[in-house]
Amino acid sequence: MANITQLLGIKYPIVQGGMIWCSGWELAAAVSNAGGLGLIGAGSMHPETLEEHIRKCKQATDKPFGVNVPLLYPQTDEIMELIIREGVKIVFTSAGNPKKYTAFLKENGITVVHVVANLKFAQKAQDAGVDAIVAEGFEAGGHNGFEETTTLVLLQTLLPVMHIPVIAAGGIGSGAALYAVMALGAAGVQIGSLFAASAESSAHPSFKQKIIEAGDGETYLTLKQLVPVRLLRNPFFEKIRQAELSGASKEELAALLGKGRAKKGMFEGDTDEGELEIGQVAGIISSVKPVKDIMQELVSGFNETARKANKLHL
Description:
An eight-stranded parallel sheet has the order 1-9-8-6-5-4-3-2. A three-stranded antiparallel sheet has the order 7-11-10, with helices on one face. Helix 8 crosses helix 14 (291-309).
């Protein structure tokens, strides 16, 4: 499987997740400057806000960066026009049908990558003409697949049948994990949680502190009747869990969820009543670090694992 460094014009095959409320221009620029691909998360931005972040990112880095666009929002047409107008060259799409925008974006010279959680949508994305896919296992934070397929199994399902690069996502928290998925045949990785807790993340400091304090097994996949989402356990999560155990309907769960829960928790710092979207690797994150240090640890961990792997034989 081809490496993504040439496709995306980056030094290391490491892509930062385009996370809502965490992935502003500062984080994207820091990841790109450190040799990865930074992504601005358009999911939490109105078009005028996204425009500001794109322009600031251009000023902060001369390296490639991209925009992550969830396709379920009403202003997507406007956002795509803005991306083209601002000269962004890489777009990661998710949460929708890749057929709708892929040809349009590629006609405008944009590299397109789509996020999938199962074989059916991987094949649809490939047929739509995307340049690569992200195979996201259910270890990942935030919105997730209904199938609850792990990253390891998803990779083994997709790699034999995909003819385009497959980027692994979900549960990647170390250089050793980066090595492991690339040994399977992944072209690279997309990492969210490590960067959500970075110094340059736009997440609220209180949310970052909760990530650091999280122990093993403290994230849960919930709201499966609506859209599955992995959350860190907090009082709001407990309300959701009790409602689900009591047999709440979709309508009742939607009413309990309301609007703006993710912003409240992740951006505004209400760690009791907000949604705290983070992956399972939260349990191994012990401090807030600059992106540069995170990237260096990933690369050195990868290289050390490669040295050890050379000594393994069956």
